[in-house]
Amino acid sequence: MRGTATADSRWRRWLHALVPQRHDLLALALGAVSVAGFAPLALAPLTLLALTGLFWLIWQADTPRQAARRGLWFGLGQFGVGASWLISSVSIYGGAPLPLGVVAVFLWVLYLSLYPALAAWLARAFSSRTFPVLGLLILYPAAWVAGEWLRGHLFGGYPMLQVGVSHVLTWLDGYAPIFGVLGVSWAVALTAAALVWLAVRQAWIGAALLIAVVWLTGGSLRDVRWTEPAGEPVSVALLQGNVDQADKWKPTMLYPTLKRYVTMTREQLTADVIVWPETAVPAFFDLVEKGALKTFLHDARALGKDILLGAIWRDESHRHYYNALINVGHVPYQVYRKYHLVLIGEYYPFGDLLKPLFDWLDIPFDQFTPGPFPPTPMKLGTHHAGMAICFETYFGDELRQQLPEADYFITVSNDAWFAHTLEPAQALQDVQMRAIELGRDFARATNTGLTAHVNARGEIVAQLPAYRQGSLRVQVQPRNGLTPYARWGDLAVLMLLGTVFGFVLAARYLRGGLRFGRKTAGK
């Protein structure tokens, strides 16, 4: 009987843990609201206020476990809304049954929510209400940035919705050329912590001075020109075919799709560089090279025109497949192969072990091979262009490996996978952050949008309307020089994190009796 009672008590505790409490629901709402700070709404103050609310909830938590729970619910709100577009690629176009797709996306959102939960646990476990300056102003921002850094690296990385990105084109983006997006996230988190400090300790002067220093310093840094123009602008034609993802890979659509892009290309032959989107060619390149595009490719080589085609490139053995961007006007072809692949979407962990199982279950199984890293910028005319395909634009610390050789960047994507969702706007906003970090112009061609030119200040110079066929002719300015972030990447932020947590652990060890994270109700 006692064992049964113990089991019943354990189940009651589990059920109680699963039922959201009042503060959990508030954290969930704050996480959802934080998404409004990102594109397409781009209401940056809402992300700042949402993070302020989360920090206040962490401060009010009695234990690190309770704080982690609130961080988890915040993550469920943030990623449940901000990454909801995953259901489009998984079920609408990926073919998974809707119930299975919903479960898969929920599990992924739950996984992503572990990072704000970890940040909340760290902030509460190593802080004391007795020392608000140490806890709020030092640990809370550091814990948040540590969580974002881990999320951007573990299991291939998933750095979407970093709070620093929400503050593109605000005064705080002045930190990006020095510390990268994580530095901007730190500035946002420090501002949020100062607002909580103001609320719980009425530290009007201290909080106001801190916020003023953070924002005014960021604003003054925006006036620094880390890179300089290198020669005349390059005329780049970005093609947006607007081929529906549901039709794209149908055999009957191969010739109409190729005809569409060939026609658009011939209309833009006065441009220096012409760019087709990611996998604009819905077939293996070696097949269309000998068939449907044979005449077009012959003409491109004869003209010596730099025409970049998104296609699937495979080696002679047909065992390795690459998501590639191919310059067909160059002899021999210049081929850029995507190196940072999407987990599950483009490769599977333990793929060699899974393939026999998938074959036995009669489930199609193919995965891409990653290209070489770091990649070599492509020589286009008299300049070198850095390359990135889709997911790679989320990783500034990797893109910087193409500098200083790259004078500007060309990136391609096929955001048709995500239909009319938040993802295309979010992806373009991340490209804006990369431009600021690296001090380079970006020319971006996509299948359905958002095709755009972003200058080195992160400003969208020109853009095509989404979900329409069209060509965008832009003047991309090559640039020389390196930003501090282009030189050192995340090193500065990692050193700051090491200093903060090293200091906290040392203080905890030296003080002995001081229990960081201990319940301190009433203080």
Structure description:
This protein is of the alpha/beta class and 523 residues long. It has two domains: 228 residues; 255 residues, Carbon-nitrogen hydrolase (Nitrilase/N-carbamoyl-D-aminoacid amidohydrolase), CATH 3.60.110. It has a six-stranded mixed sheet, covered by helices on one side. Strands 7-8-9-10-11-12 form a six-stranded mixed sheet, with helices on one face. A hairpin with a 5-residue loop joins strand 11 and strand 12. Helix 3 crosses helix 8 and helix 6 packs antiparallel against helix 7. The chain starts with a helix and ends in a 12-residue tail after the last helix. The C terminus is likely disordered.
Structural class of the helix and strand makeup?
alpha/beta
Radius of gyration: 25 Å
Ends apart, CA distance between termini = 43 Å
Give the fraction of residues assigned to helices: 40-55%
Q: Point out poorly predicted stretches.
A: 359-365, 513-523
Proportion of beta-strand residues: 5-15%
Number of domains: 2
Oligomer: single chain
Instruction: Predict the CATH topology of the largest domain.
Output: Nitrilase/N-carbamoyl-D-aminoacid amidohydrolase
* CATH superfamily descriptor of the largest domain: Carbon-nitrogen hydrolase
Strand arrangement across the biggest beta sheet: 6-5-4-3-2-13
Strand tally? 14
Average pLDDT value? Answer: 90
CATH class of the largest domain: Alpha Beta
Shape: globular
Biggest β-sheet description: 6 strands, mixed
Number of helices: 18
